[in-house]
Amino acid sequence: MTTAQTTTSTRGARIEARDLTKTFGAFKAVDTLSFEVEPGRITGFLGPNGAGKTTTLRMLLGLIHPTAGSATIDGQKYHDLDHPQSIVGSALEATNFHPGRSGRDHLRVLAAAGGLPDSRVDELLELTGIPAAARKRAGEYSMGMRQRLGLAAALLGDPRVLILDEPSNGLDPEGIRWLRGFLRHLSNEGKTILVSSHLLQEVEQTVDDVVIIANGRMVRSGAMSELRGAPSTIVRTSDPAQLAGALRVADVLAQPGDDGELIVETTDKRLVGDVALRAGLPIWELRDRKADLEALFFELTEGTNRNLGDGNAVPTATAPTTHAPHETDAISGQEGANE
Amino acid sequence: MGAAIKSEFRKFFTTRLWWGMAIGIFVSAALFSGFFGWALTSDDITADQTGVEGSATQIVNSVYTGGLSVGYLLMLTVGIMQIGSEYRHKTITSTFLSTPKRVTAMFAKIVALLGIGAVYGLISLLGSVSVGAMVLSLRDIDPFPSTEVLRTLALSLLALGLWALIGLGVGILIPNQVAAILVGVGVAWIIEPLLGFGLSFVDALQGVVPYLPSQATNAMVNGVTQSGVEVKPLSWWAAALVLAAYAAALSAFGTWRTVRQDIS
Ligand SMILES: Nc1ncnc2c1ncn2[C@@H]1O[C@H](COP(=O)(O)OP(=O)(O)O)[C@@H](O)[C@H]1O
Ligand SMILES: [Mg+2]
């Protein structure tokens, strides 16, 4: 065990969830959810509030017993890890501190459980940028300081996997920027990172992969670049059809878009400009086409949110736990929601 | 295991609770032993009037453990809070994340609470023996009439630790910390002694009275007894076993329940 650990400690480890299911009474919070988180990548675990993200992460971490299915980290159940802090670090909620205990003492309590020295505690306080607050009672911390303390706790054992539940909640824009850079830095060290959020925009610049769930079920998973779609360019001109023809001659495909736009399947704006010039067409606008991720995310998730009130006439409201096909029919690229 | 125990001790000694309790235990031990040292040895009050009877050793035992009944209520509270504050502030999540084998985590709590009980026991003895011995000496009474007194002092440490474990069980049974403290202390301080008092008048049920936790605690330290009471206390070792059985049952139940719980 120890030797295996030292040789692989710099590499990330794989997280695997298979058919995870959790019911609270008659309510299916998580429904046969399967996904994998690849080593060394940052994966966004996304879904609207109430989708089942926290419940899923708590099942990964052995805090909630799954009704069915299983979850492993580096091939082992969390419960069976001998030195969990050196394999997995996690920060679940920013409120998990005794208000009368100082931030440093909170970390010392955890360090003791992991057999780690106090010097490691001070290192982490420094790294997460809260050394000045270390001796203050945690009850006096701002939300941002609590998030940083939670992150410090997660990193104590220099884990290979990091699991963070909504870490940017309550952070100001400066804090969010800091977090983004920090996660990048950790990922570059080779750590596997799973980070949940109810906002796709919040993590889209940070994550490599996404796992999107709604109503406890998978609606989409894959690389972020896939979700964005192939990059393309929008051009406006006096005669879109003529420009499309000229581009086709140059081996570039183009389709008409809204409002007289032409969507060109390339990122090479110079090529588009040159072709237009040769065709004698004016260019009124030439820009990158960005996938509207916000709209996509909404389409994937909110349209069927079981947690919204009656005003939102959702067909699933009466039967949130059935495998109603209409919930997912409209969604492309869906994986794993139904067997 | 050792790491988890160390973590539990740190948990306890890194909040203000511990020294508040320490002051409470020290002061109550000192006050009660001073008071008993004076009251139980007053020449002008004969044994008949106070209704108290006991040997010289028993009197000294009573003086040194005079604060024990307050002490064990405080330890009950400490036990409740060692788990209750984890539920309340949701630190139970980080406890089980750093020690995912919950039986180990709970066993660490049990060991730590026994240790904490002993620490507070020493603090309490510091107060009671210093003040008690002084008062007894002033009255020209031998403050250490026999080695049995040492046994009593040692058992009072154990009693405090065991009451902390009873608290642990209560804290798991009633997850709301404030409710657990109110119910736990209310039952141990008022209801259970009244029950024992009432039962001692019922011939058929008299036999169970010595097995009640407060009665067993008092029997452990072998102090003076009220004359005229028919119920005979248990011997010190039987009483210790009875109290240990309560502690074991409650903490085992708590562990079993915690292992099955979802932490959300
Ligand atoms: N202990 C519980 N008992 C009953 N319902 C719960 C419990 N925990 C979560 N839920 C419900 O399960 C659903 C998923 O919750 P959660 O996992 O917290 O979602 P998310 O983290 O995605 O916002 C919610 O509808 C929530 O109300
Ligand atoms: Mg959540």
From TrEMBL, chain A:
Molecular-function GO terms, alphabetical: ATP binding; ATP hydrolysis activity
PROSITE patterns membership: ABC_TRANSPORTER_2 (PS50893)
Keyword DNA-binding: no
Record-linked Pfam families: ABC_tran
Region (Disordered): 307-339
Xref: Gene3D superfamilies: P-loop containing nucleotide triphosphate hydrolases
Domain ABC transporter: 15-240
CDD domains registered for this protein in UniProt: ABC_BcrA_bacitracin_resist
Keyword Secreted: no
UniProt KW keywords: ATP-binding, Nucleotide-binding, Transport
The family this protein is said to belong to: Belongs to the ABC transporter superfamily.
Protein's recorded name: ABC transporter ATP-binding protein
The organism of origin for this protein: Knoellia subterranea KCTC 19937
TrEMBL record, chain B:
Transmembrane regions: 17-39, 59-81, 110-133, 153-174, 181-202, 234-256
Alphabetical keyword list: Membrane, Transmembrane, Transmembrane helix
Name of the molecule in the record: ABC transporter permease
Organism annotation: Knoellia subterranea KCTC 19937
Organism lineage: Bacteria, Bacillati, Actinomycetota, Actinomycetes, Micrococcales
